[in-house]
Amino acid sequence: MNLTFTLLSVISIWSVAVITPGPNFFITAQTTVVQSRLAGMFVVLGTCTGTIIWSVAGYFGIAYLFIIAPWIFGTLKVAGGSYLIYLGIKLMISFYKHDAKPDNPQENSQSLLLSWRHGLMTNLSNPKTAMFITSLFASALPKEPTIFIGMLSVTLMVVISLIWYSFVVLIFSSKKFGDCYKRIQKWAEGFAGIIFVAFGAKLVFENK
User: Fold this and answer.
1) How many domains does the chain have?
2) Domain range spanning residue 137?
3) Confidence bin at 168 (pLDDT 50/70/90)
């Protein structure tokens, strides 16, 4: 299989997957508009860290482990779904308490580390990502891919994630968008909370 065709296949499939709005998108956007561009970028770094973990796991075929020991997959689904539900409930609580006082967290290493952790945990919350990546590699990579091809594919996937979510941060941190968001912040956070609970519930209760 031609190397260029292989890499273009990985790029195209992963780009569509990343651009499709999901928990990673919402946590990045919400953190950026509520806190700061820097906090949003640390969420992006956390998301990319999760992408590295899932990509490497997918390359080595962790999906096959899920098939052999389905209870592991089920446990990760419940844990990940519960985490998303937890984030969603926090957002919905802020919806009702929004009028109390604005949240302006101090920008320090601890808060930035928390932003990174939110990005990482949100990314890792869906073990089906490993299944998707394994399927991506199975369809796009040669039958016996070398470590070089595998690591190059992982690198491209991380770079795509970094570029896209950095673009999301850039857009959502603009003054014009920020002023607009402040007018609808209460409802936007409530909507984001519902989205997170819905994603989490889907993970926890779906059969497959």
Assistant:
1) 1
2) 3-205
3) very high
